[in-house]
Each structure stands twice: as C-alpha cells, then as structure tokens.
Design brief:
By secondary structure, the protein is mainly α. Helices cover 52% and strands 3% of the residues. Helix 17 packs across helix 19. The protein is globular.
Length: 707
C-alpha cells in the first residue's frame, strides 16, 4: 500500500519548511560577518513570497478542492462486509451500525463506495487563511529585519523559528483530521515563546516567554483532553467522518429498552466479525447491550475544545496573559501574536465547531455568544486604562477577538463568512499599527502614549499613517474598512436574531472609539514650547529625518562647574546638578529611554537623579560623590568640595564584530524594512477602505468548508 502525495497541494508549507532548513544551514556555515543578517532576512522573505505565490497559483486553479494524505483506496473498497442487522431491528439501526463501524453513510446496497477521507484539503477556506497568514508574514519579516539590525538577537534562530510558525499557520487551515490539527496548532505556538525570549538579558522578555509557555501548555492539555473524548465517542479522527457520526447519532430514532432512556438504546449488531474490506475506524465498537448515552461526554468534549482554542485567541476568561506577553515580547512577535497566531487559532476553532461539531451547535453556539460578549467588553475596558502603546494594542486585540467570535454565536454559514471577513480586515489594520509602533519604539524606549505626542509634526509620514490605522480600528472616516467590517458582523447578528449581542457590540464600539481617538489626538497635538531646531547628532548617534527622540543634548554648566548633558524637562528655571547627565556612553545607563540607540537602556540607575544632586545615589552628600569611572577635580575659586566631572573620552569608532551581530551604529539599515512595512499595510488598508466589497467578493465558498 503506497500513499500518494500531491506536492502541489502541500507546496506552501513545504516551501516554508525548506526555507527554514536553508536558513539554519546558512547560519551554521556562513562566516560571522555583518552581511549575514541581511542575507538570512532575504532568504526568509523569499521563502514567504514563494509560498504566497503557490497559494495564488492554487487559488487561480478552478475546480474542486485539492486533496492529499487520503485514506487509501484499499480501505475504501466496496462495503461488502457491512455488519448485518437483525431482522427485528427498528428503522435507522442499519445507519447507526455503519456509524459505529465507521463505514460510509451512503445508501445501502452492494457495491456502495465510501468517499475517502483526507487529512490535507486545499479549498477556499484554506486559501483565504493561507493567503492572510503569508501576507502578514511578509510584514512580520520586514519588522524582524528592523529589530535584528541591533545585532543583539541571534539572527539564524530568529528566522528559523519564524518560518516554523508560518509553516504551522499555513498547514492548520488545511488540516482535516484531529491529529494533524493539533500538530499544526502546536507548530504555530511552540516557536512563538522561543521568539519571545530570544532577546537575552531582558527580564521582561523572559517573563513574557515563561507566561506564554505556561499558557500554551495548559491550552494544549485542555484541547487534547477534549479531542480524546471526541475520538472515544465517535471512533474517528477525520473531521468529515466525525461530523457524519454525530449527525447520524442525532438522527437515529429512539429505541429504548427496559430501563433505558430514549435515544440510548441500540439493538445488538450481529456479524460484526465478518467485516473484511469496508472502511472501519481503529476504534471498532460492538455492543452486547444497548450502548451508553454519550451526550454528556460530547458536551464535555465540546466545552474543553472550545476552552483550549479560547486560550489561543485570548478570549475571556482565558485572556489574562495577553497584556504582559505583548509588552514583554519584541514588537514583531507581538504583531505575530495579534494577527498570525490569532488567525491560526480561529481557523482551527471554525474547522472543529462548524465542520466537525455542527450537529452539536445547540451546545456551543450559546457559549460562543457569551464568550464573545465578555471578550469585547473586558478587552475594551482594560484598553481604556492603558498608557503603554503595546499594552493598549494588546487589550484592543482581545476586544477584536470578541468581534470575530460574535458571528459564530449565530451558527449559520453566512455568519461564519462574516467572521472570516472581519479577521481579514482586522489583520491589515492591526499590522499597520504595530509597524508604526515598531518605528517609534526604536527611539522611545518606554513606548508610552505620551511619546507619540506631536509625532505627526516630527515625522509626518509615520504620524499620519498611525492616525489612519487607529481610525480604521475605530471605524471612523477615512478608515472606513473598520466601519464596514463592524457593519458586516452587526448585520449577521441582527439577521440571526441575536439582538442582545448586537447591542453589546454597539456599546463596545463606542467604548473603543474613546481610546483610539485619544491616541490619535496625541499624535496630532504639537508639543508646547518645543524648539524649532534640533541638536545635531553626535558621532555615534544616527539621525533619521523627522524622528524626534533626543540623540544629543547641548552641554550645560552650572554655577558649581558641573558639566555634562542636560536632561530634557529636568530643570525648571534653575540649574540642578542632580539632574545632569554625564556625556558619553555612560549616559545610556543613567536615563532610561534617553538614548534608545542602545538596547541596554534598562540598566538605569534612577537613584542618580535624586533631588539632592547626588550622582552616585548615596545618601551622604558631604563630599563629591560620583559614579565609578568619572574623575573629580577641584575648580579654582569654588572650594575643595565642589565636584568637577570630567566626561570620559568619546567612544572609538565602532568596530565590526566577529559574531555576525554588526556594530551598534548600524541601526540605520533597520529603518528601510519597517518603512516598507508601513507603506504596504497603509496601501492595503486604504484599498480596503475604498473598496471593501471587493474583499468580500474574494471570499467565495467559505460557507462550504471542505465540501
């Protein structure tokens, strides 16, 4: 028995896997030189683009879905061995007998052939999610190039893990059995917490990685428990056969025996040992007595599977990890979590709920509606309190998950299409916002909302782009794509007679307007009292036109003769020697975020800025207290106790390293990829705003998942 493989069907994930292997080999054998970073980034970007090209080629191919990894024909032979049914059996027993043995649901008769079940199916549903993931992957790779320009993160490991995540995210929507679904989901999840912790010596990133790891392990355990119950109750792992078993179980008329509840009895099926060539599942069940009622087992299985995927998409009450993980992770990883990981989670959730558990909709539809209402409400309320840009986007992403879940609380095919359409719109808007945040975070280490004040005047392109993305998320003109996406979901809720959920969504839309507009107002508000000009950058501090973070501050001197660099906003009309920043590279350790060229600004010594003017942070100010490495000398006429800080000599010109990290001043090259990412997302969001109906026209056949 030889399993045939359609390599055209598996081309996108196969290309990504090969690119990941190539990146690993190049990283191992190429010499440690600065050019390695752009080479590995180019290989990664090429692999993603080639995979996207295969997805476009598959979409242009008209006809039926492409199937591979199917049950061999030898196991789908004519069902000559279907177990016999007792002549006295009531109607419907023959159908249930086929259900228990896993045979086809076709009309009975000799020569009946069952349709093969496949583990990998490329249909419209698969193409939509694969295209979304790969398009988002291009943006994430560009943002990664900007992040890796600092040279502090291992480049080869980063790109390898990123390609592994994309491989799982592309394979997941094509998965049509429970085993492959779980494997693809874990291939999406496991590399992400490694990416989160790759920035060494960053305690916040390590904490975020541990939290994400624990959440991933718990969600996987819960999902596997639910899937094991589904397999135990149905005897099959293929989603189409699982749905068939559950439909037939629900359609069988009750034949209660003595002491049995209605719908639980099944007369004994005789002749089961004669099954020879018919397709049977690995779990072959033959009852000598009426089988037990499995409705409670199915209910528990549905709840567990729903809870497991709720962890993946950060739905309430499984959302608490989102804020800390998004803030601690590098910005490209936060963008990946908010779009790619979320898209993969929703793809798996829709496949299991709609394709496999459609007959159990009475159980999961009310639960999904309640979870959606809680998710959008809690996410928006938490976003109102945020002052950190990434945390605000994190809780905003939680609220957006509620909007995406809402149509699944209606349970019809059109509502499912609305959920997918909203996810496509949301991806373009959110990726653009993260791209601008990535740009600003390189110059403002704290990355708080106040750091964006006046951004439209300092960097008009970035500021106006972020305002546009925020208006898209809020659903205000000119960002009409967000308004159109919400109308699509709102319409399905009203048509589906879920009016209470539509009211909750309308209220949350108004709440979301507040923090999106408040952030946009900060960007468009000029900073009062800001000087027209800017100090010229120092020899080791690059400058990007239009960006605003202070790169060099003019030297000042107080009456006491202390020289150094003044801290912006530190003085209030008088010279305060305690608020003087020494020049040179020691400055980066004194003021967090003042010199964001360097990644180690977290080594701040806040005690050095006490109101007592003690540069060393000691309480004893009787004598000259200075930080190590600085010289103290007396100034004539000023007394012996007056400290004079002699700044260290300027750092030498950067030398190329030998481990492939590059010099610290090579950060200029990182601005090009992030600028391209902002431009791409802005063009897509603008196109969606101008012609949103075009996107819906590109979503045909979504209602026929796997059919």
């Amino acid at each position: 028995m030889v399993q045939s493989i359609d390599y055209f069907a598996v081309a996108p994930p196969l290309v990504l896997a090969l690119a990941a292997g190539l990146v690993l080999l190049l990283d191992a054998f190429l010499p440690r030189r600065p050019y390695v970073r752009p080479v590995l980034g180019a290989v990664t970007l090429t692999g993603v683009l080639v995979a996207l090209g295969f997805v476009i080629a598959q979409a242009s191919r008209s006809g039926e879905a492409i199937r591979t990894f199917c049950v061999p024909e030898s196991l789908t032979a004519p069902t000559r061995g279907i177990p016999a049914v007792s002549p006295a059996a009531p109607p419907g027993v023959e159908q249930v007998t086929r259900t228990l043995t896993g045979t086809a649901a076709a009309a009975p008769g000799p020569g009946t052939v069952s349709a093969p079940s496949c583990s990998f199916v490329v249909d419209d549903f698969t193409l939509i999610f694969a295209g979304l993931v790969l398009a988002a992957g291009v943006v994430v790779v560009l943002l990664s190039m900007t992040l890796l320009a600092s040279g502090e993160i291992p480049v080869g490991e980063w790109h390898f893990l990123l390609l592994c995540t994309l491989t799982g995210a592309v394979a997941l929507p094509a998965s049509r059995d429970l085993i492959m679904l779980v494997v693809a989901l874990e291939l999406v999840s496991l590399p992400v917490f490694a990416l989160t912790g790759l920035r060494r010596h960053d305690g916040r990133a390590s904490e975020a990685a541990v939290k994400l790891f624990l959440v991933s392990v718990v969600s996987t355990a819960v999902t596997l428990f639910g899937i094991s119950l589904l397999y135990g109750a149905t005897g099959t792992v293929h989603l189409d056969r699982l749905a068939q078993v559950l439909r037939e179980r629900a359609a069988v008329p009750a034949a209660p025996g003595p002491g049995q509840a209605a719908g639980t009895a099944l007369p004994q099926a005789t002749g089961a040992a004669d099954v020879a060539e018919g397709y049977v599942s690995s779990l072959h069940i033959v009852y000598d007595a009426p089988p037990p009622d499995l409705s409670s087992v199915l209910t528990v299985a549905v709840v567990l599977v729903l809870a497991g995927f709720a962890f993946k998409v950060a739905a309430v009450p499984f959302h608490a990890w989102a804020g800390d993980v998004y803030q601690g992770a590098p910005v490209p990883v936060a963008a990946l979590l908010s779009v790619i990981s979320k898209a993969a989670g929703f793809a798996g959730l829709i496949l299991i709920l709609v394709t496999a558990l459609g007959s159990e909709s009475g159980t999961w539809v009310p639960l999904v509606a309640i979870i959606a209402a809680l998710t959008m409400t809690v996410g928006n309320l938490l976003a109102l309190r945020q002052r950190h840009a990434v945390r605000l986007l994190a809780w905003s992403s939680v609220a957006q998950s509620g909007y995406i879940l809402a149509p699944l609380g209606v349970r019809d095919d059109e509502a499912t299409s609305a959920s997918i359409a909203y996810l496509v719109f949301y991806a373009a808007m959110n990726l653009g916002a993260f791209a601008v945040v990535m740009l600003v975070s390189r110059r403002a280490a704290r990355n708080e909302l106040d750091d964006y004040r006046g951004l439209a005047f300092r960097n008009p392109a970035a500021g106006l782009a972020l305002v546009f993305f925020l208006l898209c998320l809020a659903g205000l003109p000119p960002g009409l794509v967000g308004l159109f996406a919400k109308i699509v979901v709102f319409r399905e809720l009203v048509v589906g007679n879920v009016g209470w959920l539509a009211v909750v969504m309308a209220v949350n839309t108004v709440i979301g307007l507040y923090y999106y507009v408040a952030w946009a107002v900060r960007i468009l508000t000029p900073v009062p009292g800001r000087a027209a000009g800017k100090a010229a950058p120092g020899p080791d501090h690059g400058e990007v036109p239009g960006d605003d973070a202070p790169r060099a501050v003019p030297a000042v001197s107080s009456e006491q003769g202390i020289t150094g660099h003044a801290v912006p906003g530190a003085s209030s009309g008088q010279e305060d020697p305690g608020r003087v920043l020494p020049s040179g590279r020691d400055a980066e350790r004194a003021v967090p975020g003042a010199f964001p060229d360097y990644e180690d600004t977290g080594r701040a010594a806040p005690e050095a800025f006490s109101d007592q003017g003690d540069l060393s942070g000691r309480e004893d100010v009787s004598g000259p207290q200075v930080s190590p490495g600085r010289s103290v000398s007396a100034i004539p006429g000023q007394g012996p106790d007056t400290p004079h800080i002699t700044p260290p000599p300027p750092p030498a010109a950067p030398v190329e390293d030998t481990d492939g990290g590059g010099s610290r001043t090579g950060w200029r090259a990182g601005w090009v990829p992030v600028a391209v990412a902002i431009g791409l997302t802005a063009v897509v969001a603008l196109l969606f705003s101008v012609a949103p109906q075009m996107v819906l026209d590109l979503l045909p056949g979504v209602v026929g998942i796997g059919r």
